[in-house]
Each structure stands twice: as structure tokens, then as C-alpha cells.
Amino acid sequence: RQVYACFNRPEKITPAVFDSWLEILRQVPGSVLWIINDEPRVEERLRARLTAAGLEPQSLRFSPKVESAAFGQHCALADLLLDTSPYGSGATAVTALAAGLPLLTCPGDTFASRLGASLCAATGLKELICSTPEAYQERAIALGRQPAELGRLRRQLLERQADLPLFNTAAWVGHLESLLERLLATEC
After folding, report:
1. 117 touches 129 (CB < 8 A)
2. Secondary structure (3-state) at 90
3. Distance (Å) of CA 34 to CA 7, 25, 61, 82, 173
4. What is the pLDDT of residues 144-157, one digit of tens each?
5. In angstroms, rounded to a whole number, what is the distance separating the alpha carbons of residues 113 and 134?
6. Residue % of the chain over a pLDDT of 90
7. Do residues 139 and 114 lie in contact, with contact meaning Cβ atoms separated by under 8 Å?
8. Can you give the pLDDT at residue 168?
9. Mean pLDDT of 111-116
10. Average pLDDT of span 108-137
11. Furthest CA-CA distance within the chain
């Protein structure tokens, strides 16, 4: 059983994105979609869409928001984090990636829609950046059918964390300082 997750705020979940997720659930039997949500009305509406799509109620799981300290532990229970569009994941994805949860994303034309792709690139997960919504859906289905690949991606995140640009703050600060020094030298 694969656990797909969306830990973004519910207002980021568009009808088109949710319909894509329903198709993913349909194509990966036994899989579930886990959403963090504290709004009963959101749960009602998403459950109604799930039912209308002919999927089993247990395919959709909800849990309330958790403290930041516990969030990383939640990430260990999921297999793949599904990004939203056109407003993607930011700090939530950083925390999930640090906990070893791979992020699947499909960037758009705006900064808010491209952040997930930047995070994937900075963690060596360029193969999880999809060029179209269709490719995003197909990749989520393929990964749902390949638990060993999802495990490899999780291990890659956890084992290489010290080398990944997203988590190497000292190197980032060093590059920024160097850039600022060169800019100052050019101006002076």
C-alpha cells in the first residue's frame, strides 16, 4: 500500500489537482491519500468528490495539523509528497525532504508554482520535476507501483543530506558572502 500525502494548506488544492490525485488512487489499488486539514467543510467537499469518482472512502485520510517537532515524524509515515499547483509547497516541503519524504512537483510559470522544482533540484531529485500535469500524474502512478524506487529516493535524501545544497547552510552562506564581496569590489 502506498501512502501519497499532501501536507499543504487545503486552499492550495485545486479541483484539477485533486481530480489528478483521484486518478492516481484509481490506478494504484490500495493506495491512500493523506491530507492534513482542520476544516470540516474541506473534508466534506473532498470526500464528496472522492465518492463521486467511485473510489472507496478509506482511500482518503485526514489528520489535523501537528506541531513542527512532530511533523517530521509524520513524514516518515508517507511514501510520496504530492505538490500542489499553481501554488506549491515551500517550508512544508523543506521539512518533508529533510525527513526523507520525496516531493513530486509540476512547476508552472510563477515563483509560487516553481518553488517545489527548486527544492527538488537542490536535493538531487530532478527526476521528480514533471513538465506537465499529465507527466506528474503518470510519474505518481509509476512510483506508486514501484515501492523499491520510493525507498531508494528516501534513502538518497537521508544518506546524502550533508552534501545536498538545500541542507548545506554553511556552503550557501559562503557563496552569498563571496558574491557580496565581489559585488562590493566591483562597486569600489
Report:
1. yes
2. coil
3. 8, 11, 5, 10, 36
4. 999 999 999 999 99
5. 16
6. 78
7. no
8. 80
9. 89
10. 93
11. 67
